[in-house]
Amino acid sequence: MAMNKHTRMSEEWERWLDASLDKGCRITDIVAAMAAAHYDAAWAEATVRERQLQRSRPTPEAAAAQAGPYRYGTPTIRHRNNTIVTSDRTVRVAMRIEQPVVAVLDDVFSPEECDGVVALARVRLQPSATLSPTTGENQVKDHRTSQGAFLDDADEPLLQRLNRRIAEIMHQPVAHGEALHVLHYGVGAEYKPHHDYFDPANPGFAGTLKRGGQRVATLIVYLNDVEEAGDTVFPKLALSIVPKKGSAVYFEYVNGDGQLDEASLHGGAPVERGEKWVATKWVRQGVFK
Ligand SMILES: O=C(O)CCC(=O)C(=O)O
Ligand SMILES: [Fe+2]
């Protein structure tokens, strides 16, 4: 005889659900655990998704602060000077925009440091995945036809040195940064225009937003000279940055009210000749866990 399936949740289960979502558990795993406890699977999935959506909605006060066009304040980066001095290297500002905040920086990594990062990444490359906005799962999609690797070895001296320098350039604590992420593009590979922040309207991002909050700024360091094309493009600014070994592009896109700057839309244009290597640092509002 078929057992009746539960379609109502006890307070205890509600607390368990919130704790699971806090931990960033995948919806499929949560639903599987509920089904094993005799919840109706379809009902469980709808309930979990609704709860996730509810939790991601801003409070009325936050929603009011976030309304309206993006309000530009003082940039986090000190890019109004010609140089940014760090503890081990002086970086030159080659170009700056105020709205949105974008800066092109020279001499961020030495040529040897670029080669060292490529060597660390080469053995770990995987086809690039992106987070699904709906389910929060990692997925490989054709809008990102590159290969990537997170360099998360905390004991590697080169990474320690570069992570500290990057934090000083970005004027952010080291602990707010995700691990350095390296991308490799062959001929024809590209990364279609996107925002680096997570759109809070997408329930699939709730899990990653728990890990230090929203992304607020990005530094993309070019690890080689690309023979032809492969620019970093900002379609809303009609701006295109040609990769140059050791140089970087910086941009920021979240202000103190939590507004998100849509003008930060950017992508990696297809490489036409040669190959392209970049190292990206994404920085969060809080400590990245
Ligand atoms: O390769 C590029 O120029 C863009 C990379 C990028 O958008 C990213 O790493 O977030
Ligand atoms: Fe990006």
TrEMBL record:
Organism of provenance: Pseudoduganella dura
Xref: InterPro entries: Oxoglu/Fe-dep_dioxygenase_dom (IPR005123), P4HA-like (IPR045054), Pro_4_hyd_alph (IPR006620), Pro_4_hyd_alph_FE2OG_OXY (IPR044862)
Keywords, comma-separated and alphabetical: Dioxygenase, Iron, Metal-binding, Oxidoreductase, Vitamin C
Keyword Transferase appears in the UniProt entry: no
Positions of the UniProt region annotated as Disordered: 51-77
Span of domain Fe2OG dioxygenase: 176-285
Phylogenetic lineage: Bacteria, Pseudomonadati, Pseudomonadota, Betaproteobacteria, Burkholderiales
Gene3D superfamilies per record: q2cbj1_9rhob like domain (2.60.120.620)
A molecular function GO annotation: L-ascorbic acid binding
Name the record gives this protein: 2-oxoglutarate-dependent dioxygenase
Names of required cofactors: L-ascorbate
